[in-house]
Amino acid sequence: MEPNAQVPNPVPSFPTQADTASGVSGLQEPMELLASAWKFYKENWQNFSLIAVIPSAIGFVAFIIGSANVAVLNVFSVLIIIFAIIVGVAMQPSLVGSIQRHESGIEPNLSIKDQYMRGFKFFWSVILISIISGFVVLGSTLLLIIPGIIVAIYTMFGMYALVLDGQKGFSALTYSYGLVKGRWWKVLGRLLLVLVVYLIISIIVSIIISLVTGGTLISRGVSPSPAMAGLSMIANLIVQAVMVPLTSIYLYKMYVSLKDSRLPEVKTDVFKKWLTAFIVVAIIGLILIPISGGYVFYQLWKNFGPPVRFDEVNRELNGEQIQGADILNQLNSLERSVEQGTDIRD
């Protein structure tokens, strides 16, 4: 290695205030983003909510069919759930694409079917990005959690980069990094705002559902009736119909704002190498964790012995009972001898 060669940090450096200060101004303020997203949602809520709620609605149908407790219907219910998951993957790019079309005014009135057909074109690309992101976050999280949080924020716009700018695989994640670079703390703050709003609304709805469906009965171990469980799912569908598109609009507007104010010439080559390194760490972790768990179990079995066999315990207890009966008989014979005045020595 040359004396003046630069060695990269072992993990992506934690964002500093200096990085944030170096960012180009123009990123929308959190409350401005939220207000703009809410206004945009109100103007187009029918389209966005319908796209967002379809996968959950399919899952609700599966719940109704499965509640019949009939073997054939249970199998059919599982198949419907799998179909709902597949539709859920296509829902994400369908919703983002719909938001972009309404924002730009280009083909905003496509039918739900056509919007989903366009979303399904991104199906395998979304799967690929999700797999890469999952391994990257897992591998970085194994390095004491904090690197996982850092990388998750840097790569959170990968799916938007896919749908809006045609970036795929690693390129989508490095493109997201290029947008967030220099504004990590600002992006984190804006993300926390929408998460807090989501959490507050979810808690309020959960309390209402608990009161309506008899939460006190559930807390006592009494299951709610199918009708009450169905009512709870319908309420959750309503929450998703509002919050999923609202959150997507919020992130879409943040993405556009980041693009408009991105730093010039952000280098992403080193970050891509660390993404690969995190994937390797994740794979190693997935291999070592079950091996380590098996080794610990083996040591426990070795130190504390095999599990107790109940048949052996029963035999020992039966033997003790026989010995106890013999002693009791001897004591009774001794007592009778004393009462009859017989010499004990006899």
Question: Keywords for this structure?
Answer:
346 residues; mainly alpha; disordered N terminus
Summarize the structure.
This protein is an all-alpha fold and 346 residues long.
Provide structural commentary.
It is a single chain. The chain has 346 residues and is mostly helical. The protein has one domain. Helix content is 78%, strand content 0%. The protein is built from 13 helices and no strands. The radius of gyration is 32 Å and the shape is extended. 25% of the residues are buried.
Largest sheet: none
Shape: extended
Average pLDDT rating: 82
Q: Treating each run of at least 4 consecutive H or I residues as one helix, how many helices? A: 13
Q: Into which percent range does the helicity of residues fall?
A: over 70%
Identify the quaternary structure here: single chain
Q: Report the β-strand fraction as a percent range.
A: under 5%
Class inferred from helices and paired strands = mainly alpha
* Sequence stretches where pLDDT stays below 50 over 5 or more residues: 1-11, 17-25, 216-220
Helix-strand pattern: HHHHHHHHHHHHH
Number of domains: 1
Radius of gyration: 32 Å
- Using DSSP, what is the number of strands? 0
> First CA to last CA: what distance?
101 Å
SSE arrangement:
Blueprint (H helix, E strand, L loop, with lengths): L16 H5 L8 H37 L4 H34 L7 H9 L2 H19 L4 H9 L3 H8 L3 H12 L3 H30 L1 H5 L6 H35 L8 H36 L5 H30 L7
